[in-house]
Amino acid sequence: MQSQYDVVVAGGGTAGVVAAVQAGRAGARTLLIEKNGILGGTITVGGINAPAHFFAWGRPVIAGIGWELFRRTRELCGEPIPTPEFTLNNDKPGHLTLDKAVYAAVCDEAVLAAGVDLVFHAMSAAAVFEEGAWTLTVCTKTGLRKIRTRTLIDATGDANVVSLAGFPLVHSPVVQPATLSLYGSGYDVQQLDFPALNAAAEAAVAAGELKSTDLSWRNTGPESFLKSHGVNANHIRAPGADTSEGRTAVEVESRRAMLRVYRFFKKQPGLEKYRIDWFCTEAGIRETVTIQGKETVTVQAYESGFFFDSALCYAYYNIDEHLNDGKGINYRRLGLNVLPTIPRGALLPAGSRFLLVAGRCVASDREANAALRVECPCMAMGQAAGALAALSARMGLDPEELPLEPVRALLRQHGAIVPERLTGA
Ligand SMILES: Cc1cc2nc3c(=O)[nH]c(=O)nc-3n(C[C@H](O)[C@H](O)[C@H](O)COP(=O)(O)OP(=O)(O)OC[C@H]3O[C@@H](n4cnc5c(N)ncnc54)[C@H](O)[C@@H]3O)c2cc1C
Questions:
Q1: pLDDT at residue 69 above 70?
Q2: How many angstroms separate the alpha carbon of residue 52 from the centre of ligand 1?
């Protein structure tokens, strides 16, 4: 790790990897710090390897570096490369999947090939803007390091750097639940007596041995959990997970829930040999905070497909707000041919200079966030942030002051799809 960079990206998850690759490929001296020992964030450590959606309404809407990493992973795995046709009419477009392990290694390769300095086991500890550049204090295993950088990208998912820099965040009194994904086996779904299992689960919930959300999102008993083998199947309350303390509470409660389920299953006929083959080492967090941005994506803008003048990428997904306490999901489909856009200002904390965010904590209200938080928009926002940061450092202009044309041209040069205003006939 050097002491001077053009661009530093904090957080090597869904958005941060793409941001760092874009900045590096644009010629910026770039550092990527990541608190874990693996890239990919929620895709790898959270076990959510189902990026939604590169395609909408029968055409590609998000491409560029995120698509390249996805495509490379599928090619290495010998899996077919999907085409956009299946998204016509938004008839519940299927989720595409990728191999988590191969994706993590592909991300390492892409980041290093872009000339990015990569440091794992490193967290942001302080961020101060002074004399036209940022001093970022990084907490490494061997002590604190001070790094100078012209431009700083917060891709922590939790706006941790924005908070350290003293800019206000939007905290909602209620946040979506988290999920601890795992894969259980040792049983034959066809041989299970689900009415009996449901009755046993109800009794266990009444006795306080289980919570209904340990097994399902909608108080529906163990059937969906067992059929999915525990992948993305439970709900855990997750207040304050942008802090180490809040996050610790979620991790502990996630594993308590896993243990409750394990104990319960082992006592049920047909599940005596139940075992957990793998589990995610972190709970997947759906929502913590958002920034107060220079622009905000509201649900009205999102659902109407409002074209922001400074739009840098599309975001396509239905409203998908998970509810606490077994109440399921607030789910609303986008209208026919609606294609929401994300403006530059949603990546810029209000009042900040040379600071960007990318990923699920961009400026958006709760319902819009419940849609644009998914992986492909996070990748697209990462690429937009990487391009803005690289040009901002090169031209010595704040990202808000940059003329949009060179930013859009750089994004297109690296394969991204930049929204275009549709003109009437
Ligand atoms: C259970 C669940 C199911 C989901 N299902 C889907 C789905 O099917 N399809 C889909 O497309 N999306 C899905 N999503 C949403 C999507 O996965 C996430 O919203 C998205 O991946 C978030 O990307 P991000 O880059 O903002 O954060 P992340 O991918 O979480 O990356 C943040 C990174 O920053 C690192 N970090 C955090 N704090 C610091 C710090 N202070 N210093 C340094 N590094 C730090 C983290 O370790 C992590 O690597 C799901 C989410 C969850 C939780």
A1: yes
A2: 13
Distances from the Cα of 248 to the Cα of 40, 190, 210, 212, 242, angstroms: 20, 37, 21, 22, 10
Q: Is the pLDDT of residue 144 over 50?
A: yes
Rounded Cα distance between 14 and 378, Å, is 6
Least confident residue range of 27-41, 92-106, 404-418:
92-106
Tell which phi-psi region holds residue 52, choosing left (phi > 0), alpha (psi between -120 and 50) or beta: beta
How distant, in Å, are the alpha carbons of 6, 126, 256, 355, 393 from that of 146? 14, 9, 38, 17, 19
371 and 271 co-located in one domain: no
Number of structural domains the chain divides into: 2
Does the CB atom of residue 32 touch ligand 1 within 6 A? no
Q: Are strands 4-10 and 289-291 parallel, antiparallel or unpaired?
A: unpaired
Per-residue pLDDT, averaged over 162-183, amounts to 98
- Atom 13 (ligand 1): residue with closest C-alpha? 374
Range of the domain at 205: 182-279
Are residues 199 and 241 located together in one domain of the fold? yes
What is the residue with the minimal CA distance to atom 15 of ligand 1? 374
Ligand 1 site-directed mutation target among 156, 285, 381, most atoms within 8 Å of CB: 156
Q: What number does the ligand 1 atom closest to the CA of 122 have?
A: 43
Domain-located, residue 423? no
Residues 166, 234 within the same domain: no
CB-ligand 1 contact for 322 (6 Å cutoff) = no
